[in-house]
Design brief:
The protein is mainly alpha-helical and 239 residues long. It folds into two domains: 164 residues, no CATH class; 55 residues, no CATH class. It is built from twelve helices and no strands. α2 packs parallel to α4 and α2 crosses α9. 29% of the residues are buried.
Length: 239
């Protein structure tokens, strides 16, 4: 329900997230260019962009689609690349207590790394469900719209962009900036080290299987470190 609390939350969430949304620019452009380079038509590219709405999964599966990889591998790769959203959703779920089912479904579709990193702490600290929903939906809808527009620019301008522009590097830097807040704890740091080390070590594997292995290595390292941290902490110690 749109009320004063919702509007206030939406305004505050949008203002808070707006400077961070600059990271979407290179990432969306690269995704649009990559979809066209993979042979997608404009409707196909934008259809994938709307349905999937996950740049990492889109870029990760495009090479497999281009070489005619089996569907099970494409689906497995997409699932592995998006596993983090299961963790994000579980972490932020308490903030949606009392929210209707269809709004929660919409919120799940709109969930992104940037919005989760920027908005979840304040959402979880608030006891006003309308404010929380507005604080989440405003930057999420802004991200969705900005992503679609910028990806379309990449799709339409793929042939005009100079090959000397290092957009892929810019997109990687944007993702690294978003990842920095996540590695403040031991489990997340262990996950990042394990995943990156595995990805580099297995980079020569075909069909990007090294990337899938890196994802599971990171998840395993994170969970193992979390359990070790909890078991080694003295009784009564805050974890």
């Amino acid at each position: 329900m749109i009320n004063d609390s919702f509007r206030r939350g939406a305004r505050e969430g949008f203002i808070h997230f707006l400077p961070l949304s600059i990271g979407l620019i290179p990432w969306a452009l690269v995704t649009g260019v990559a979809m066209r380079s993979a042979g997608f038509s404009v409707p196909e590219a934008m259809g994938m962009n709307v349905i999937v709405f996950a740049g990492t999964a889109q870029l990760g599966t495009l090479p497999l689609i281009m070489i005619g990889a089996p569907m099970w591998l494409i689906l497995l790769t997409s699932l592995a690349l998006n596993l983090r959203f299961v963790i994000f959703s579980a972490a932020i779920a308490p903030a949606f207590e009392g929210v209707s089912l269809w709004r929660r479904i919409l919120s799940g579709y709109l969930l992104t790394d940037g919005v989760f990193a920027a908005c979840s702490p304040r959402m979880l600290a608030s006891d006003n469900k309308d404010w929380r929903l507005g604080y989440y939906l405003a930057p999420s809808l802004w991200s969705w719209g900005l992503w679609q527009v910028l990806a379309l620019v990449g799709v339409l301008g793929a042939s005009a962009l100079p090959t000397t522009w290092s957009l892929e590097f810019m997109a990687s830097i944007a993702l690294m900036v978003l990842l920095v807040p996540f590695v403040a704890s031991r489990p997340m740091l262990a996950a990042a080290i394990a995943a990156s080390s595995t990805a580099v070590a297995l980079a020569s594997l075909p069909l990007r299987l090294g990337l899938i292995a890196a994802i599971f290595a990171g998840i395993g390292a994170g969970f193992a470190t979390e359990r070790w941290t909890q078991s080694s902490a003295p009784p009564g110690t805050a974890r």
